[in-house]
């Protein structure tokens, strides 16, 4: 009996250590993630704060076609550039934590099922929703799929966002028409994308030509 009790205690201690280790790993990753840019109204300042984000968004644009400004407008709307954000839990009696309303997480607030599809189709098993490279690529991939399924132009950020929020099927059914909040968010994304594009036009060379090998005819490649 004593041996069995000792074994049970050992198992519980091992599980506790494993849970603690996982918790520390997750919190450590969150601590190492970039802080959200202070000035999110200006895409030039966002990229000055995080120049690698320009590289990621440009690679996604080249691969899938969604403009850089639209990608960043989506991410600002979805997460305000917070890498590990998730929908808040419901609270019972004001303090008892309940379930989250959805599985959305990360910069692009991608849901578990569609993130799994993205990883299988394009992102690979190592893709993480908390990494800007994968978030921008996911948005590009998703919008290109939307274009094929619905015919929405990749230069129509308002309707791309409606389909991003509702899914291609929901968009075709017009489910967003019964959701004023979603329509307002889509309008905000469109306005922000337009503003970001205008700003980027004045500063993009700054990010295209910052490496030692980018000069003359190679600048911007």
Molecular structure report:
Helices cover 64% and strands 2% of the residues. By secondary structure, the chain is mainly α. Strands 1-2 form a two-stranded antiparallel ribbon. A hairpin with a 3-residue loop joins strand 1 and strand 2. Helix 7 packs antiparallel against helix 8 (180-208).
Task: Kindly report the spatial arrangement of strands forming the biggest sheet.
Answer: 1-2
Shape call: globular
Backbone structural class: mainly alpha
For the record, give the distance between the C-alpha atoms at the N and C termini, rounded to a whole number: 71 Å
**Sequence stretches where pLDDT stays below 50 over 5 or more residues:** 18-27
Q: Radius of gyration over alpha carbons?
A: 21 Å
Q: What fraction, in percent, of the residue positions are helical?
A: 55-70%
Largest sheet: 2 strands, antiparallel
Describe how the helices and strands are arranged:
Layout: H1 2-32, H2 43-49, H3 51-64, H4 68-79, E1 91-92, E2 96-97, H5 112-123, H6 132-150, H7 157-173, H8 180-208
Antiparallel strand pairs: 1-2
Which properties best describe this structure?
single chain; 221 residues; mainly alpha; globular
Short description:
By secondary structure, this protein is mostly helical.
């Amino acid at each position: 009996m004593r041996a069995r009790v000792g074994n049970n205690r050992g198992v519980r201690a091992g599980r506790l250590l494993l849970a603690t280790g996982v918790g520390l790993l997750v919190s450590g990753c969150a601590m190492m993630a970039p802080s959200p840019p202070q000035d999110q109204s200006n895409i030039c300042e966002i990229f000055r704060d995080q120049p690698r984000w320009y590289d990621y968004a440009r690679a996604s644009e080249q691969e899938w076609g969604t403009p850089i400004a639209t990608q960043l407008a989506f991410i600002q709307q979805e997460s305000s550039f917070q890498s590990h954000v998730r929908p808040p839990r419901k609270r019972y009696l004001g303090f008892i934590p309940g379930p989250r309303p959805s599985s959305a997480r990360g910069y692009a607030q991608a849901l578990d099922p569609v993130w799994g599809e993205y990883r299988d189709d394009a992102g690979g098993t190592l893709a993480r929703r908390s990494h800007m490279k994968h978030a921008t690529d996911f948005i590009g991939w998703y919008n290109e799929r939307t274009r094929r399924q619905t015919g929405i132009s990749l230069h129509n950020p308002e309707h791309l966002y409606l389909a991003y929020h509702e899914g291609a099927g929901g968009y075709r059914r017009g489910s967003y028409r019964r959701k004023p909040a979603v329509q307002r968010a889509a309008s905000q994304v469109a306005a922000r994308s337009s503003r970001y594009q205008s700003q980027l036009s004045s500063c993009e060379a700054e990010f295209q030509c910052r490496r030692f090998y980018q000069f003359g005819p190679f600048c911007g490649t």
